Amino acid sequence: MSRGGRALVVLYVAVALWLAFCTVRTWGAVPAWTTLAMAAAALAPVVGVVRETVIAGERRTVAALRQREARRSAWRDTAAAALARAEVDTACCERWWTSCATRHDPGCAHRTSWGTTT
User: Fold this and answer.
1) Residue 19 contacts by C-beta under 8 Å, 6 or more apart in sequence?
2) 45 and 10 in contact (C-beta within 8 Å)?
3) What is the DSSP code string of 44-77?
4) Distance of alpha carbon 74 from alpha carbon 98, whole angstroms
5) Which long-range contacts (CB under 8 A, 24 or more apart) does 40-49 make?
6) Where are the transmembrane segments (predicted)?
7) Whose CA, among 29, 51, 80, 85, lies 20 to 30 Å from 23?
8) Separation of first and last alpha carbons in the chain
């Protein structure tokens, strides 16, 4: 839960306690409907506490999904780099064929020891 969320929860709890205290103090001294209204109002901040808890859970879920997606994209980046490396490696042989076998990279894995010139 964020710092602001915690502050709101503390505020909600304080308001709920104050309203509950006022409800108990006014019991029997005022009409019953006002005491019941005060009791209902004392329960209203509980909704705020539940809301902040749900929001904190959703934030944790979103953070976990973002981390999972970052790992997936890192895997995709690694796969794309390997594919690009393979294409660059085969480009050497393509240059060799298009240059009538006169230029071939010395480090090429496909280079044979007989009949190739560098």
Assistant:
1) 38, 41, 42, 45
2) no
3) HHHHHHHHHHHHHHHHHHHHHHHHHHHHHHHHHH
4) 36
5) 42/16, 43/16, 44/16, 45/12, 45/13, 45/15, 45/16, 45/19, 46/12, 46/16, 48/8, 48/9, 48/12, 49/9, 49/12, 49/13
6) 32-50
7) 51
8) 65
**92 and 105 in contact (C-beta within 8 Å)?**
yes
pLDDT values of the chain reduced to their tens digit, one per residue, 118 residues: 778 778 888 888 888 888 888 888 888 888 888 888 888 888 888 888 888 888 888 888 998 888 888 777 777 778 788 888 777 766 666 665 566 665 556 666 655 554 545 4
Residue ranges covered by each domain of the chain: 3-80
**Length of the chain, please?**
118
Contact 40, 19 (CB under 8 A): no
Structural tokens at position 97: 């064929």
